[in-house]
Amino acid sequence: MDDDTTNKQGKWPLKRRIFWALMAVAGVVLFVNVFFPDLDLSTEDRIALVRVEGVILDSQSTVTELKRFGDNPSIKAIVLRIDSPGGGVVPSQEIYDAVQRVRNKNSKAVIASMGTVAASGGYYIAAATDRIMANPGTLTGSIGVIMETANVEGLLKKIGVEGIVVKSGKFKDVGSPLRKMSDEEHALLQSVMDDVHKQFIDAVAEGRAMEVSAVQALADGRIFTGRQAKDAKLVDELGNLEDAIQLAADLAGIEGEPKVVEPRRRFSIRELIESRLSALLPKLDFYSGVSLKYLMAF
Questions:
Q1: 172 among known catalytic residues
Q2: For this structure, is 213 an active site residue?
Q3: What is the pLDDT of residues 226-264, one digit of tens each?
Q4: Which one of 42, 172, 191, 278 is the catalytic residue?
């Protein structure tokens, strides 16, 4: 029966029915991807791969991914791929805590796989995992805290501009770039730095099951190669990402080649614009207040 005959009988042509069936399937797939991007109906044993890349400015996405994979019964272990020089103190600590929750609450192994660099805040996060695997040439360590500010008082005087600050307490503008820092203010900031540094040392000592004194001897901000870090007991094994995935599978009892699943990346206009701007203006930072960082200084 041809298409014309079919139309006379009030039925759609076969080609048109196939077309609309495919469109309906595509519509359902699009709907699920948009409104239920994290839907996972698989029951096969798998390894989850979570990536921490670039400077750590926010923890939300990583913490969310760790929680989702931790709660998923088909995910038997997680590999945390770290390629980061560190970043903010608080987001690094929040990811550290999220890793510990997966290990303790969900009883799942978490393996750190270090890429080109996994230093300072990147190492802080790795210290929370069950095992750390680094490449021999990975740059890691840099256990320390840094705060950077600038004094532009002399420059402002040269161009005839006077900085004026109205404050309610003598330390309210500590770290202000508009004037020279006093010895008392420097001592105050140093005490804050020392406390945050101690938090880093304690976290590494707990995560690596090391004596605090042993970590203190390594926590002067120095960097290590992966091989040096292994000798210093900051890293467990040398290997690449595939080795880390296989180690995770072995710890989880998965036989054969493990299936790896990664989080779906949501498209974001805001992230696209911000990435473009950061590429064009990588050195601009309009925040002039005190900012503590677990960040490897370049």
A1: yes
A2: no
A3: 999 999 999 999 999 999 999 999 999 999 889 999 987
A4: 172
